């Protein structure tokens, strides 16, 4: 493969290859790992199922237990009603042992240790990994494989996890994170679904709108009111209506439904850039109002950089003119600094170019980050999911820390006119190659 491409940046044809790995019924699979007779049996992991206990919930259920209607987050009493405990069934002639299951208490320490092993394999096989929960990660594998061979690659990753750690995984592969996530869920358990470039919008079309990134149950209900039930409906909806109803987020979910998703797979830990944006309720060309907003965003971004011990070498602004005209400008400095006044003065300077123009959203960003000595990258492990960007309607702010594993090494700066959403991977240092691993390394090659 072309060694010049940095991890996380598009291939020549613009398509990244993103894999999403999600372990199958993870806690239950962990229990089976240490208690093999549970293989093939209905297994429920949760709390509150011992005699005398009344409260508790199901953390997860094996796929055999799901056939009885037992699932995550269900009250344990409801689960026991559908699937009695095996130990109770053998004692109680009114219960059928064949329709009973094995209940096990949650043991996070053990699940974390299994997760750690899975993570080790994933990191050895992919240069860029974003862990999003105890059993879930995104991988950018553009450099590891290509569209002709990615299915085999993913099958081998699954086999490697299964044979080395002893737990099953499902993998989705697609050119975007959103599609890869949906794909990994499509054929569970032990699933492997590849969505090729060009097929993403079709792949989404018939899915319920909840499957679109950024659409939760409340938004789904509101969309339903608008007659939008599927991702396909959302993709062909009127973006103005969506914006009016949901603000900026309306446009985001519209894009995701269309298969457009520029998010890069970036490791958690040190951010690649820090930005803050703010939308006006009504577009404005009032220089004083714009200046005030930029000043306060600049102060907030600089503050965040200081709190993260981040030095920045590039300061930029984003100016969105109605309806969707996104402009970014950035200026590089001779060296990395932590100077809040400079963020403000450069941002205001860059804003001058838009004098007299109506603006509906402004943002300030510092990028090309490096970190002061002593600050360790804290790759959070398979932590609970925590989206970096919280987008809200007009008048509210959006915070965005783009993750990256390493600081920029030598201050290469791109004065980009591209939207921030496209990221600035040119500032991103390549992750060092894996070395020394034997079996896993062989597999990775
Ligand atoms: N979990 C939990 N409570 C929930 C959901 C999940 O404690 N309401 C825990 C138990 C799961 C683990 O998180 O095993 C991973 O969550 P997933 O949503 O990935 O669920 P599973 O891995 O169990 O099942 P699936 O095969 O659907 O991924
Ligand atoms: Mg899972």
UniProtKB/TrEMBL annotation:
The keyword Transmembrane does not apply. Signal peptide: none annotated. Residues 436-445 have a biased composition (Polar residues). This is DNA polymerase IV. GO terms for biological process: DNA repair; DNA-templated DNA replication; error-prone translesion synthesis. Keywords: Cytoplasm, DNA damage, DNA repair, DNA replication, DNA-binding, DNA-directed DNA polymerase, Magnesium, Metal-binding, Mutator protein, Nucleotidyltransferase, Transferase. Its EC number is 2.7.7.7. Poorly processive, error-prone DNA polymerase involved in untargeted mutagenesis. Copies undamaged DNA at stalled replication forks, which arise in vivo from mismatched or misaligned primer ends. These misaligned primers can be extended by PolIV. Exhibits no 3'-5' exonuclease (proofreading) activity. May be involved in translesional synthesis. NCBIfam families: PRK02406.1. Pfam families: IMS (PF00817), IMS_C (PF11799), IMS_HHH (PF11798). Monomer. GO terms for cellular component: cytoplasm. Belongs to the DNA polymerase type-Y family. The keyword Acyltransferase does not apply. SUPFAM superfamilies: DNA/RNA polymerases, Lesion bypass DNA polymerase (Y-family), little finger domain. It is an enzyme of class 2 (transferase). The record marks 27 as: Substrate discrimination. The active site is at 136. Coiled coil: none annotated. Its cofactor is Mg(2+). GO terms for molecular function: damaged DNA binding; DNA-directed DNA polymerase activity; magnesium ion binding. It catalyses: DNA(n) + a 2'-deoxyribonucleoside 5'-triphosphate = DNA(n+1) + diphosphate. InterPro entries: DNA/RNA_pol_sf, DNA_pol_Y-fam_lit_finger_sf, DNA_pol_Y-fam_little_finger, DNA_polymerase-Y, DNApol_IV, PolY_HhH_motif, Rev_trsase/Diguanyl_cyclase, UmuC. It is found in: Cytoplasm. PANTHER family: DNA POLYMERASE KAPPA (PTHR11076:SF33), DNA REPAIR POLYMERASE UMUC / TRANSFERASE FAMILY MEMBER (PTHR11076).
């Amino acid at each position: 493969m072309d060694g010049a491409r940095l991890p996380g940046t598009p291939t020549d044809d613009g398509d990244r290859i993103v894999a999403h790995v999600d372990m199958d019924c993870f806690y239950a699979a962990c229990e089976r790992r240490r208690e093999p007779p549970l293989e093939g049996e209905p297994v429920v992991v949760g709390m509150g199922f011992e005699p005398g206990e009344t409260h508790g919930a199901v953390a997860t259920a094996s796929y055999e237990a799901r056939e009885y209607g037992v699932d995550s987050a269900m009250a344990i009493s409801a689960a026991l009603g559908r699937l009695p405990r095996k130990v109770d069934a053998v004692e109680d002639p009114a219960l059928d042992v064949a329709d009973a299951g094995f209940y096990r208490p949650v043991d996070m320490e053990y699940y974390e240790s299994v997760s750690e092993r899975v993570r080790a394999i994933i990191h050895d096989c992919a240069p860029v990994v974003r862990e999003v929960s105890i059993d879930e990660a995104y991988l950018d594998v553009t450099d590891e494989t290509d569209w002709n061979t990615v299915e085999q690659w993913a099958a081998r990753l699954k086999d490697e996890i299964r044979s080395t750690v002893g737990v099953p995984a499902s993998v989705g592969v697609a050119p975007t994170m959103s599609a890869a996530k949906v794909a990994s869920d499509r054929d569970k358990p032990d699933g492997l679904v590849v969505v090729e470039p060009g097929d993403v919008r079709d792949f989404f079309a018939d899915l319920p709108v909840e499957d679109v990134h950024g659409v939760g149950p409340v938004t789904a209900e509101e969309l339903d009111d608008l007659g939008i039930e599927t991702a396909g409906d959302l993709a062909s909806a009127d973006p103005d209506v969506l914006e009016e109803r949901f603000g900026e987020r309306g446009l985001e979910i519209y894009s995701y439904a269309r298969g457009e998703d520029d998010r890069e797979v970036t490791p958690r830990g040190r951010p690649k850039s820090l930005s803050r944006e703010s939308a006006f309720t009504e577009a404005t060309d009032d220089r004083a109002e714009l200046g005030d907003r930029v000043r306060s965003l600049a102060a907030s971004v600089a503050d965040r950089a200081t709190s993260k011990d981040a030095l920045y070498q590039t300061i930029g602004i984003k100016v969105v003119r109605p309806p969707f005209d996104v402009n970014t400008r950035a200026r590089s400095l001779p060296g990395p600094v932590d100077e809040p006044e400079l963020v403000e003065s450069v941002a205001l300077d860059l804003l001058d170019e838009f004098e007299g123009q109506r603006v509906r959203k402004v943002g300030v960003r510092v990028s090309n980050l490096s970190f002061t000595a002593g600050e360790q990258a804290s790759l959070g492990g398979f932590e609970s999911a925590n989206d970096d960007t919280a987008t809200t309607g007009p008048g509210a702010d959006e915070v965005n820390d783009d993750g990256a594993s390493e600081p920029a090494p030598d201050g290469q700066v791109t004065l980009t006119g591209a939207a921030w959403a496209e990221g600035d991977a040119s500032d991103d240092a390549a992750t060092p190659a894996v070395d020394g691993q034997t079996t896993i390394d062989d597999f990775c090659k």
